[in-house]
Here is the input.
Amino acid sequence: MTDLLDAPAADTDPAPPRAAGRGRALLGLVPFVGYLLVFLGGPLYFVVSGALSDPDGRPTVANVVAALTEPQYHAAFAGSLTVSAVTALVGAVFGTFLAQAVLTSRPGSPLRRVVSTASGVLAYFGGVPLAFAFVAALGQTGLATLWLRAAGLDLYAAGFRIDSLTGLGLTYVYFQVPLMVILVTPTLEGLQPQWREAAENLGASAWAYWRHVALPVLAPAVVGATLVLFGNAFAAYATALALTSGSIPLVPTAIASALSGNVLAGRQNVGLALGMTMVVVIAAVMVAYLLLQRRAARWAVR
Amino acid sequence: MTRGRRWRVVVLAIAAVYFLLPLLAAAEFSLRSPGGGYGLANWLAIVSDPVLLAALGTSLQIAVVTAVVVLALVVPTAVWVRLQLPGLAGVLESATILPIVIPPVVMAAGIAFVQANLGGPVFPALFASSTTALTPFYVILALPFAYRAVDNGLAAIPLRTLVEAARNLGAGLPTALLRVVLPVIRSAVLGAAFLTLALVLGEIVIARILLYTDTFPVAIVEVGRSRAGVAVALSLASLLITWVLLLAVSLAGGRRSPADRASS
Here is the structure.
């Protein structure tokens, strides 16, 4: 697990790549690429083709237009975009501070191992267990709710509900922060102590060092990681599914109800069009991430 | 320095409260007895519920097959790219992001379309049981994390030297992979396997949309509708078990690495 967090070590391979036939070398990728094509490309193909055709298979853009213009889908996109943006920003800021706090602890301390493994579990596990833990904490009879009520703050009287956008956002931060820790730790580790020493020798204060040296170096990686968090929350559905029975307006909820509803003919195709729109949004975000990462790599020690 | 310490304490304290409180609350909630007071009723219900146990069995079966397929795809590919196609490392890394770009709910929508509309000999067999229908797609979900874990493990070892030494001693590439590379990166491989396990024990979106109700996470949610305490106990148990497994891997890997660093 630490391997996810450790920055890759310097390349210790002595020999340059053998000049084997490039075509033969590419053959080695066939199983991996083939698997991706069949089991990822396959579903994607049917999403796109279904989104762009009517129930009888004739090509149309009506589904996409419906997905982008109907008011209930506007609400779904607004809900998804809001909860993704807010939790990405909160997760990114707090995750960066947490990663730095852990990194400045003693190397090999138990804190590091606990945080790094916990990050792995919480960042990817998310979903169902997380939803129930939050129901236990902040549900009607949850422990935190009871404690806060005893302290004079009645959440539910103030209108809070765990199965609302706010409740969902609070839950999402629980996996956004660990993911940020995982993503940003290698970059923070890449800050060379010599840079700090050089800045201090030139008379820089701690603030000046962060403002003029560390932050500019970190910025592309931190912004890139924030984009990943955004995409992560935008794609997430398991927590919402476990937390509620479809009452929160989110794009995945809209897709699921369009797929299962079957009330009106052609809803299935609108669901696929919503899915395609979702892929377009996340793809745009991830392309931006890759570009930023390339920029961030300039400072990586080779 | 004292100022530096103060913000650390604040950050770590907030993190401790935010991350531990839900777990603590889950523990407390799971120990509540239906009639009031505390007891082990919810935890005992887990082991005595045949539906839950069957669901756990199904999900563990899916998890094991998924992990095996994932590792069989990822380890040789990552090694191959590092040895033969270092120029393509960036492209491959981007390719492993693809499953993140296409979220589970969209994948499920595409699969549901196939499930509903396509016949022939292949598809009905594929969709006959949750194991055969879900495993191929859970592999896709696990690929990005597994690839990163394994590739980072490979970055930390002198891969080319090891493989060439093995081959000079007469080993074929598969032998070198299985008997030299795999043992050296075992902590990365185990990490990838446990992440896969965690993913399968938490995945609900595809299973729900494809209407498979016999996997563990779906069963937890179903139980949660009537008996929240049992569902919370199960959630806590599955979180903690995965964490302990990963911590064990991390400690096993950590014991090795100081010596490695000292010698290099």
